[in-house]
Amino acid sequence: MASLDDFDPSFYDPDWLANTYLHRGKVLAHFAFFEKALEWLLASEFSLDKKVQRKMKSVIFDRMSFEQKKNFHQNVVIGERYSGRFCSN
């Protein structure tokens, strides 16, 4: 069975390894941006006041995992739109 002791970074092409780190960082950055955008979307559903939104973000959403935010969005925001609460009909 292979272990980390068997890993030899000199075996890999330096450009390949650098590109791997670069692209991994880009993916992580995009997910971080998406998570923050989701927080602002959730906060804007409850208040139009930016000060209240920032407070909600710092008090509530910073303590939630990405999965919890996603589930909250699916259950509350999307569910209420389909139930007619946010519709003008």
Largest sheet: none
Approximately how much helix is present in the residues? 55-70%
User: How would you spell out the order of helices and strands?
Assistant: HHH
Q: What gap, in angstroms, lies between the N and C termini?
A: 63 Å
Tally the helices: what do you get? 3
Number of domains: 1
Please count the beta strands (DSSP E, at least 2 residues each): 0
Structural class: mainly alpha
Shape, principal axes of CA atoms: elongated
Low-confidence residue ranges: none
Radius of gyration: 21 Å
Name the beta content range. Answer: under 5%
Account of the protein in words:
The chain is mostly helical. The protein has one domain (16-83). It has 3 helices and no strands. It has helices at residues 14-46, 50-59, 66-83. The chain is elongated, with a radius of gyration of 21 Å. The model has no long low-confidence stretch (mean pLDDT 79).
Briefly say what this structure is:
With 89 residues, this protein is mainly α. The chain contains 3 helices and no strands.
Question: What layout of secondary structure does this protein have?
Answer:
Elements: H1 14-46, H2 50-59, H3 66-83
Helix pairs in contact: 1-2, 1-3
Any key phrases for this structure?
elongated, about 90 residues, about 0% strand, about 70% helix, mainly alpha
